[in-house]
Amino acid sequence: MALALEELQKDLEEVKVLLEKTTRRRVRDALTAEKSKIETEIRNKVQQKSQSKAEFDNEKLAFVVAPITAGYTVKISNYGWDQSDKFVKIYITLTGVHHVPTENVQVHFTEQSFDLLVKNLNDKNYSMILNNLLKPISVEGSLKKVKTDTVLILCRKNAENTRWDYLTRVEKECKEKEKPSYDTETDPSEGLI
To answer: Which of 20, 91, 112, 176 gives the lowest tally of CB atoms within 10 Å of its CB?
Structure first.
């Protein structure tokens, strides 16, 4: 049984890595469902072991995570953002988020992205992944704050006093494509009759 539990832990870690990398909603939903199944299997195996009073290696027990108990995951798409000299601030409004336990609000930062997961808020999970940030951030200096009905993500800028015109590189590319191009070589009155 220890070997099966160890294999489930490895499966769970790999699913987590894939969840961090996915950008497609359907794929993310499928991986989130699979993650929940694996967590349930792990919890059931741990309960079976404790019921049979078998010895259990505490090191492996540390890898067991609290399973997601809510019904389904809602993808967060509405947010606001601002910046200061040191931080890029992302504001996410979630009614009642300040009432859930702090361990239910999790943020994972990388140098170019962050992933927010709010577990069991009004019997739902809420998820937001923001990839391809405009500039690299400091993983160690970034943090989250839970306020009344709001989650505040603070992404620490690597270079202070640098201004971000956009939040992500994709947003920058889209906005730059929308800008009209001007031909400076032709006479502007040429099209007039």
So the answer is: 176
Look at residue 65 and give its three-state secondary structure. coil
Question: What are residue 189's DSSP bridge partners?
Answer: none
Order of strands across the sheet with 137-147?
80-83, 87-93, 150-157, 137-147
Topology of domain 2-61, per CATH?
DNA Excision Repair, Uvrb; Chain A (4.10.860)
Structure tokens at 180: 């009209």
Q: CA-CA-CA-CA torsion for 40, 45, 47, 48, nearest 10 degrees?
A: 140
**How far is the C-alpha of 119 from the C-alpha of 63, rounded, in Å?**
18
- Which residue is associated with the tokens 């049984």? 1
Length of the chain in residues, anyone?
193
Whole-angstrom Cα distance, residue 45 to residue 38?
11
**Beta-strand pair 114-121/124-130:** antiparallel
Question: Residue 161 to residues 144, 151, 157: CA-CA distances in angstroms?
Answer: 21, 24, 9
**What would the pLDDT profile of 113-155 be if each residue is shown by its tens digit?**
999 999 988 888 999 999 999 999 999 999 999 999 999 999 9
Distance CA 37, CA 159 (A): 42
